[in-house]
Structure formats: C-alpha cells, structure tokens
Amino acid sequence: QVQLVESGGGSVQAGGSLRLSCAASGEDYSTYYMAWFRQAPGKEREGVASIDSDGSTIYDDSVKGRFTISRDNAKNTLYLQMNSLKPEDTAMYYCAAGRGVVPILTLIVSDFTHWGQGTQVTVSS
After folding, report:
1. pLDDT tens per residue across span 83-117
2. What is the pLDDT of residues 53-72, one digit of tens each?
3. CB 82 within 8 A of CB 67
4. Contact at 8 Å (CB) between 85 and 123?
5. CA 79, 83, 89, 90 torsion: positive or negative?
6. Cα–Cα separations (whole angstroms), residue 98 to 32, 65, 73, 90, 94
C-alpha cells in the first residue's frame, strides 16, 4: 500500500510556473508507476503525465513541451514542473500510483489504484 499527499498548488497568472509535489509513504514506492491527473469543474478526470518505475515518461498532447514529470525514489516523491501555464490548465491536480507485473506507461484512470486528495491550480488570464 502507498499513501499519497500532493502539495504545491496555487494561483498564478498565465505564463507563470508552478511545481507540484507528491509525497508517498509506504513500501516499495520505486516499484509503482506514477502519474498526474487533473479535473476541472464539470469535466472528467484526465491524465496529464505518467512515469514508470524505470523513469520513462508520456504526456498528454495539451501539456507537451510545457510540463515535466519526474520522480525521486530516494525521497519517495513525484514532481510535476509546469511552465507556460494557461487558463485552461486550471483544475484540481491529483497524484496517482499503480503497480503491475511489468512497468507500464498509462494515462487511463482505471489503471491506477491509489490516489491523493488533490491540490488546486488556478491560472488567471
């Protein structure tokens, strides 16, 4: 089991930057594949970026070139560096973890079994 706690959200103007963190507690964090999701009011939760246990990454097209996902297994922490933020990035951001027989890269909600409580990101124009 792993417990996830996000931090780093806030309010910024368009073009600004934020770095989200997700602190994980529990055993074998390094064996989990991790991801960031977001959910805006009235919309479905969507995958933003994912990283597997080997450090490979994938991104949703809407954030490619602007967001960077990374993990520090020694600190049991997942990060999301967000640059060139846009108003449409406004959402609650969630950290998620999953574990399988082999490492996978996925942005599908149902592939993840553990979720944090979320941190709000608001981007004003």
Report:
1. 999 999 999 999 999 987 777 899 999 999 999 99
2. 889 999 999 999 999 999 99
3. yes
4. yes
5. positive
6. 5, 25, 15, 25, 13
